[in-house]
Amino acid sequence: MVARPDETPIGEVILNDTADEGQFTLFANGDPIATVHLASHSGDAVIRTTVGLEIARVGQPSTSISPTNGNTYVVEIPEHLPEPLASMVLAIALTPDTTLGH
Prior knowledge:
- This protein has two helices and seven strands, in the order βββββββαα.
- The longest helix is centred in the last third of the chain and has 10 residues, at 85-94.
- Strands 1-2-3-4-5-6-7 form a seven-stranded antiparallel beta sheet, with helices on one face.
- The protein is mainly beta.
- A hairpin with a 5-residue loop joins β1 (2-3) and β2.
- The protein is globular.
């Protein structure tokens, strides 16, 4: 469950029950608004709209950007996103270890 600071619900992140392991669906108001696909070889997460448009990417930085190991991530959100999509993408980006099981 993703909620605002005042506990108003925004949406949910649900693991899909399909053969495509590592895929999540973002829901808001009970409707799917995006999917999260995990790349098993790199550990990156690609977030796509329900029509397949890539809107964000969360991944491990290259060593040239961040020489540290562990819980360091690079988040790419190339365009402004409308609500509630923006809040759901931000929730994934801020909590990748918890929400995506990295």
